[in-house]
Each structure stands twice: as structure tokens, then as C-alpha cells.
Request: fold
Amino acid sequence: MSVLKALLAGLTGGTIEVVDLTAPLAASTPILQLPPPFANTIPFGLTEISRYDDRGPAWYWNDIHTGEHTGTHFDAPVHWVTGRDGEDVSQVPPRKLVAPAVVVDVTDRVGEDPDFLLEVEHIREWEAVHGPLPEGGWLLLRTGWDARSSDQAEFLNADETGPHTPGVSVAAAKWLAEESPVIGIGVETVGTDAGAAHSFDPAFPCHSYLLGAGKYGLTQLRNLDRLPATGAVVIAPPLPIAGGSGSPVRVLALVEK
Ligand code: MN
Reply:
């Protein structure tokens, strides 16, 4: 049997499951909130054009209003100043948008410490059990944070000292960017960096190192608990916004049962 026929047979027969890792897009979808003096993105919104009425008797359609970095979305290299000469979101090669993915689960640690940071040693511990990170694949960081995604305040988890959400240490971000074989990192939080990453050196190390290395980010993922530690295939195609820095993305995972 050809490989594609085998894939279709698996989908039809139920031995391959399609898991949706995407948060729904709505006005209530949590978005990043930067402090002054920085500019912010808008919430997702719909403006009705017509709905089977005088404005269009047989059809329903809307205009959408969104930022590039709203909900489950893709960060392109050009999003960060370190990647300013890199790919915009329309230039990411399609071949890279279908890739293996592994899940590093740190939910227990995040339960005790919302500011938990993934370190290189945690990845090494994971590799000792599951094998090396996948060449050209995604490291998906499972933190349990998706359970908060229906509430902006709980999701951003900010107090007077700023947001408290899990992420990646400076050393681990540099290692993932410069030494690991992955094409990017996917997270359940509002951005790939930890809530406190504004205070790191460099600030926002995931953005700074990974996008600077021509790698990518995926954010606000959910259902990572339905993926195996290794073996999933992720399809994550952003909209080809010409010159864009990112895009909302429907992220699907193929999982062999
Ligand atoms: Mn982003």
C-alpha cells in the first residue's frame, strides 16, 4: 500500500486520530497585555456583513478583526528584532509546517510553581527516557496552563509584579535555538516566553534566541494531554500574510492509537 493510502486507511479505520490543539477564536480569547508605554493588539472580533437579510438575502458572512498574535498562533522569525532579516510568516516553507512533535510534560512542577522554567537538564532527563528531540520537529511544552484559557485573568495570572506563567530559562532557550534539532517550541501560554521573561537577560529569551535562529513558535495550544510523549505528527499552517510577523493557526496533531 502507498504511504498516503495507508494514512487514509488509518484515518478511516480509526488507528490514526486527529487531535485539535487549537483554542477557539472569539472576543473572549485571551490576548497578551503589555504594560505602558508599549502598544497592544486588539481582541478577536467579528463584524457581520449580512445574515440572510436585506444586506445579503441568501448568505451569511463576517469581517474578522484580529491581531497576528491572537489565540493559537504561529510566531515567524521576523516577529523579533533578532530575526528581522529572517522569514516573514508567508515565507515559511510548507514542508516545515508538517513535522514530528514531542511533548515534555512539566504539569506537576507548574502546579507547585506558576513561574516554573524549563531547563536544559529537564530536557536531558526527558531524552534519557524518550530519546533525542526530533530533527525538524516541535518541542511541545505541556504545563496544564490550557485549563485556564477560558478566563483572561487566570490565563495571564498577573499581579503587581507582572504576569506569572511558566516558560523556558535563558540557557534552555539558547540551547533549543543553537544546539537542538527542533524547528521550534509550542506552548499552552499566551506567548512562548515565561510571564516573568521581561526581566530576564536577554529579555524574552525564547523569542530572542529561537526567532533569531530562524526557528518558530506556537502558542495557546490545548489538548497536549491527548498526545503521546513521542510519535505525533503536527500540522501547523499559518495564513500566508505577506510581510506578516505571525498568524492565527489551526494546529492539528495526527496520533497513532
Ligand atoms: Mn506571538
Notes: The longest helix spans residues 3-13.
